[in-house]
Amino acid sequence: xxxxxxxxxxxxxxxxxxxxxxxxxxxxxxxxxxxxxxxxxxxxxxxxxxxxxxxxxxxxxxxxxxxxxxxx
Amino acid sequence: xxxxxxxxxxxxxxxxxxxxxxxxxxxxxxxxxxxxxxxxxxxxxxxxxxxxxxxxxxxxxxxxxxxxxxxxxxxxxxxxxxxxxxxxxxxxxxxxxxxxxxxxxxxxxxxxxxxxxxxxxxxxxxxxxxxxxxxxxxxxxxxxxxxxxxxxxxxxxxxxxxxxxxxxxxxxxxxxxxxxxxxxxxxxxxxxxxxxxxxxxxxxxxxxxxxxxxxxxxxxxxxxxxxxxxxxxxxxxxxxxxxxxxxxxxxxxxxxxxxxxxxxxxxxxxxxxxxxxxxxxxxxxxxxxxxxxxxxxxxxxxxxxxxxxxxxxxxxxxxxxxxxxxxxxxxxxxxxxxxxxxxxxxxxxxxxxxxxxxxxxxxxxxxxxxxxxxxxxxxxxxxxxxxxxxxxxxxxxxxxxxxxxxxxxxxxxxxxxxxxxxxxxxxxxxxxxxxxxxxxxxxxxxxxxxxxxxxxxxxxxxxxxxxxxxxxxxxxxxxxxxxxxxxxxxxxxxxxxxxxxxxxxxxxxxxxxxxx
Lengths: 72, 516
Fold this sequence. Notes:
The complex is a heterodimer. By secondary structure, chain A is an all-alpha fold. Chain A has one domain (3-71): Non-ribosomal Peptide Synthetase Peptidyl Carrier Protein, Chain A. Chain A is built from 4 helices and no strands. Chain B is 29% helix and 26% strand. In chain B, strands 11-12-13-14-15 form a 5-stranded mixed β-sheet. In chain B, strands 16, 17, 19, 20 and 21 form a 5-stranded antiparallel β-sheet that branches. In chain B, strand 25 (448-457), helix 13 and strand 26 (487-490) form a beta-alpha-beta unit. Chain B starts with 6 loop residues before the first helix and ends in a 5-residue tail after the last helix.
């Protein structure tokens, strides 16, 4: 999954079009419950199963895309 | 024990009937009832004589269960202290609960002081499991501690509008009564394996721990339960052969969404799913029913900390037709030990033996919420409810006598199943030196409720672009994360009502579109 695809997931889950590559999910209103939607969507699209701690480490689309690439 | 049906007597009964059955498993490692009992007794011995209020640093591990049961066995009052909470918050909770003894369930970090707040308090280490092998072979006769039904069993905190949480004191009679009622409601047998999911710092975890360990069933701890990945959670449920799940409604909503997206269902080992904490979405319930979950009993529940665990419940499986109750899913009927009264304005009042003693050190707040009706004590829940219309055709008898939640009488919100008074968050934010005025409102983002804060800077903070981030950090140092608004917006002014009070909803409406 590239940065754009992860940003799209953020936009859909947060119901907010203003997501950029460096938007922090948890600053934009994301919480642990909404995070599960992001993690499920990533697992479906890429087969990479990240957990909540991975997401807290990499809360932006660009950081998360790198994490996905490193585990794919 | 002087009064006949104490919850620790029920635990001892399970130990003597099922000594070799697994009481707790943790990431696959098992503790039998005999081993857990030895751990509990060793913990209780360290606390004697009567320990008063015992703070337990409640990490998510079986050690916390040993701390809870050990405290109760010693006749003490349990108060969970969340090791993840900021230190000022922990100190305030210890002080408000009168906690004189603290049990550390893990070696404590030197940078995070854990000493009791009260002068003369003590820090007690939990006996480690290896120490027990020895003591198990030379059983000392335990001198039974004499307890009464009115003795406080635990203290938990609910949100208070002044910024200080209110300590709810729950007596042993209440937790014993509720535990028995839930064994019945869940239909637990020794073969059940119950997932430990709820935070150990909140009362919902007692729904998992106490009915299970007084039945001879198994409580399953597993790190994957909180991994955030439903793929891992579902594989773990299957591998651990979990039979009972007790989930916050908001988490269950996400689980159902995931199952729909994956075209999956729950592993076949699951027989019962208990949900509660906030309103159940009729759309997710319809999804659930379309998932092929016919063999799984789904029970919606309702209760307040002040009335001890679950007081109302209803089976959502079976004849209760989807849509038959309109747009709302009933919260349930009173359990057998519960008395209820609906006031003229529709407020639900709950009475019976599961009532808390009151708020510690707060006689006025106690008198306001715990009221006499006739000769009985009732708790004013602040929740407006209405009975499901009698015999409404679509529902049939299944919904008769059930209540539907209509809303709050005050401003309280439910954030991830936890009651939050926006006034508490406002009071905390107002303590920030650069804040002039603040309004906190509940907002629904992607169908669940979060907090939004609208902040007017004080004179020294005009045009400070770092203010929102600074307030977020300030709160994270002081309050648990569910009280930190997920959206903080700096605005030029708040909206006020005609009478000059801050209009929380109005402020939100004016600025919602500007919120990032």
